Amino acid sequence: MRGNKLSGLGQQLFFVGPALLFFTIVMIIPFVMGMYYSFTDWNGVSGNVAWVGFDNFKTIFTNDSDFWSSFWFTVRFTLLGVVLTNVVGFFLAYFLTKALKTRNMLRTIFFMPNVIGGLLLGFIWQFIFIKGFATMGDLTGWSFFNLPWLGDATTGFWAIVIVFVWQSSGYLMVIYIASLNNVSKEVLEAAQIDGASRSQTLRSIIVPLIMPAVTVGLFLAISWSFKMFDLNLSLTKGGPFKSTESVAMNIYNEAFLNNRYGLGTAKALLFFLIVAIITVIQVRITKSKEVEA
Amino acid sequence: MKTEGKGKWNYGLEIIMILLGLLFLSPFYFLLANSVKSFGEILSNAAAWPSEFVWSNYSQAWKLARFSEAFRNSIIITVICVILIALFSAMAAYRMVRADSKFNRILLLLFVAAMVVPFQTIMIPILQVVNFLGVNNSIPGLVMAQLGLSIPMAIFLFHGFIKSVPLEIEEAATVDGCNPLTVFFRIVLPLLKPMLMTIIVLNALGIWNDYLLPSLILQAPELRTIPLATFSFFGQYTKQWDMALPALTLGVAPIVVFYLFMQRYIVEGIAAGSVKG
């Protein structure tokens, strides 16, 4: 007892202090500053910071079609990306929990794109869309390969979707595998004895039982696709003519290309509110669908 | 009869899944095969096996992209960040679980809420703070920012894990005369090893691959990390694939090797993290 010289406050400072210090400097203070800047006309360089009230938000809502087209792009991308990555991830997991000889190797392969950062992946795929697809088009004669990949708004959009699904499905597969392994064998056997078909078992037993994993899978996919930046930058840079510009990229350009920090932070704050609201709603909805075996 | 049918079906499934696996791997084939071709051969046929291996592509790309520097920077930054994140988060989470005060409960809520904040929302003010503290364009500045951004998630994961660590061992150690620091470093920390590995490996991947934050903080060419070096190189040598592809391969290789060795921890970590989320 005599050796115990650290008081409760001392221990709190020693153990929690370092983490709290960095958290405060890097997240809390910038968050509060961001709220302040979003009501100013600051350009990021000069010392002049004038309070402009809600002007930035007025500009965003009435006079910023670029922001809203990037928002619409992000919404479409998120809808498709979330559905496709989760469906692909789930079915990879579903088939790779069956008795296959190459099961572990295949899991390793499907997860592999995920460990490589979006920037490098985007560059690799830039080569594939430009040179690889052209060659495949010559070899197979399929018009699919000869589309102007990355060259117009539609193919640019789909290119990003394809690479995103290729990159992210493996991660969701791991989550679904963990969840599928927890579904009890007895329940499945009981269903089989009662004469349930394979698709009936899947729909009425397996899916309801893995709803906690669906909650997580949707949550992750929404937050990845809504905040997507690296892939966007390395595949299309938002072009041609801003047609494939995501919200994250629009905010970045507003601040660092147009030097309108005030407007940029206002958009960033709005972005945070939208992400927070969507994720809370999604978690509420899927949580209500979770059941116990 | 029944098992036979089942075996046959799995055989078909196996082939389908292997084909799908090859499709997933095909981008890497394009990358590797073309990285050792001459420029002319890449243009004439990007799908074929190289007729001649031009290894000098690699040595040239290595030099032009200043990869030795980039490797060194990436390793220094990742190692320092990962050690400090794991240590500080484990310490904080331990105290927050064992001293269940109102302050610590609110703090946990703050950390969880911070996990939803998009990086874009705070990136501009983070640069202000970094400038204000005089650590702009320096590795310590980047490490500081990475710590603040990664700590919330790590604390959240540790918090869930430490709750399942039995209190009795610590009480016995205290009775034996250990002070709180010894209890934590000698007894608790070793018990956290599975979660420590998970947090180290997942953060190592995230920090190694990060592009946006380093691009904002590190401007000097000699401070570039691998993604930054690749980005600037790719910009200079656009469409010069015989240089760009070896550079990309060099950037991808370390992380794939790391993955193949650490796979178990990565996969277990994701599964463990998702169950609690």
What does this entry look like structurally?
The complex is a heterodimer of chains A (293) and B (277). Chain A is an all-alpha fold. Chain A has one domain: MetI-like (MetI-like fold, Orthogonal Bundle), CATH 1.10.3720. In chain A, 73% of the residues lie in helices and 0% in strands. In chain A, α4 crosses α6 (153-181), α6 packs antiparallel against α9 and α11 (247-256) packs antiparallel against α12 (261-288). The N and C termini of chain A lie far apart (49 Å). The relative contact order of chain A is 0.14. The mean pLDDT of chain A is 88. Chain B has 277 residues and is an all-alpha fold. Chain B has one domain: MetI-like (MetI-like fold). The two termini of chain B are 44 Å apart. Mean pLDDT of chain B is 88; it is low at 1-8. Chains A and B meet through α1, α4, α5, α6 and α9 of A and α1, α4, α5, α6 and α7 of B. Chain A: InterPro entries: ABC_transporter_permease, MetI-like, MetI-like_sf. Chain A: It is a multi-pass membrane protein. Chain A: It holds the Pfam family BPD_transp_1. Chain A: Keywords: Cell membrane, Membrane, Transmembrane, Transmembrane helix, Transport. Chain A: It is found in: Cell membrane.
**Total of domains of chain B:** 1
Unreliable spans of chain A: none
CATH class of chain A: Mainly Alpha
Order of helices and strands of chain A: HHHHHHHHHHHH
Distance between the termini of chain A: 49 Å
CATH class of chain B: Mainly Alpha
Average of pLDDT of chain B: 88
Low-confidence parts of chain B, pLDDT < 50 over ≥5 residues? 1-8
Shape verdict of chain B? globular
Helical coverage of chain B, percent range: over 70%
Q: How many domain units of chain A? A: 1
**Which series of helices and strands of chain B comes N to C?**
HHHHHHHHHHHHH
Chart the SSEs and their pairings.
The complex is a heterodimer of chains A (293) and B (277).
Chain A: H1 8-37, H2 55-62, H3 65-95, H4 103-115, H5 118-140, H6 153-181, H7 185-193, H8 198-209, H9 211-226, H10 230-235, H11 247-256, H12 261-288
Helix pairs in contact in A: 2-12, 3-6, 3-9, 3-11, 4-6, 5-6, 6-9, 7-8, 9-12, 11-12
Chain B: H1 2-35, H2 39-44, H3 56-64, H4 67-98, H5 102-114, H6 119-132, H7 139-162, H8 168-175, H9 180-191, H10 193-209, H11 212-217, H12 226-236, H13 241-276
Helix pairs in contact in B: 1-13, 3-13, 4-7, 4-10, 5-7, 7-10, 8-9, 10-13, 12-13
